[in-house]
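Chapter summary example.
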Amino acid sequence: MKTAIYYFSKHGTTKACAEELKRYLPGETTLIAIDQEIIEPAQYDRIILGSSIYMGEISRKMKFFIKKHAESLNKKISGLFICCMYEGEEALEQFTKAFPENLRNTAEAHGIFGGAFHFDKMNFIERKIIKKVVQVEKSVSSINNQAIKEFAKQLSHCNQ
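The structure predicted for these 160 residues follows.
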């Protein structure tokens, strides 16, 4: 089974989570950054989409990708995940807002993998906003590796 993980990562957290997820998936898995050259989703048996949440939204590039490839994604979507710093109900709201309802309803696995603030990768304005709004003064990570493993496990059960 050929799997593609299409992801958007502004500061590297989502990319790291996609790489970790790939380790747990059986078969051939390809990581594709949607801000790079796009490989057509029709070539894959299973599609996973992942995005960071930035200012409460997934990236415009991910939204455009979903819209452009809606037909392929509706037929092959297997999993959706986000990386965000919220937990519990707030994280669930972020997830629900991130992906269209039809994709959420057909996906076999949903994941919220935690997030990170990488001050060394942020510009001045981003650092200012994070310090003022979130009241975080330095780089911090809350990646949930167990959530990544559970996501992969859900997908593995779907193939048996």
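To summarize the output: The chain is about 45% helix and 20% strand.
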